[in-house]
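In this section we turn from sequence analysis to structure. A common task in structural bioinformatics is to predict how a protein folds when a small molecule is present, because the ligand can shape the pocket around it. The inputs are simple: the amino acid sequence and a SMILES string for the ligand, here zinc ion. Study the lines below before reading on.
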Amino acid sequence: MNETKAREAICEIGASIFNRGLTAGSSGNISLRIDGGWLMTPTNASLGRLDPARLSKLDDSLRLVAGDAPTKESFLHRVMYEEQAGTGAVVHLHSTHSVAVSCLAEVDPADVLPPITAYYVMRVGHLPLVPYYRPGDMALAEAVRGFAGKHHAVLLANHGPVVAGASLDAAVNAIEELEETARLYLLLRGAKTRFLSPTQVKELLP
Ligand SMILES: [Zn+2]
């Protein structure tokens, strides 16, 4: 994908995410690997109104070379690229149902959501909960790093999901699957539910 197309893809997907209410205000950020560096959504920018010409362009050492200053959460993206081999894009959202699940007291922090559907297992797999840190605390980067080698998707407590993918489409599809599964989980809470069995999960995982 050339840089012009990459810029357009980020803005198109950002608008789609925002217009469907999957992240609100100026929350959420997207990054995409390009030749020689990254494109990233700027700080304080709404995903609903991104300008392709103003996206942050970062070089290989994550220095800003063009566009507006990148999101203050760029460290979340950096850690995923560093720890997950083959990452081509990273998406982070404050999507309502995922955030709601990230606040529940009794979830298993090693794997927050149960295997409700096959698509969730295939696109997300196991989802660890990263402990809460206040905005700007760089200890969050190191906490995410502790999981990012083994997991392409993590859920930040009282905050939201971060998902890496080989492509922008893969990352977006996975984070949307995660959000839908969080919604299903909340719908099913309190009802006797048949989740996929360990054997059913095993045959879906790589
Ligand atoms: Zn955030």
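Helices lie at 3-19, 74-83, 96-103, 118-123, 139-148, 168-188, 198-202. As an exercise, try to locate the residues that line the zinc ion site and compare them with your own expectations.
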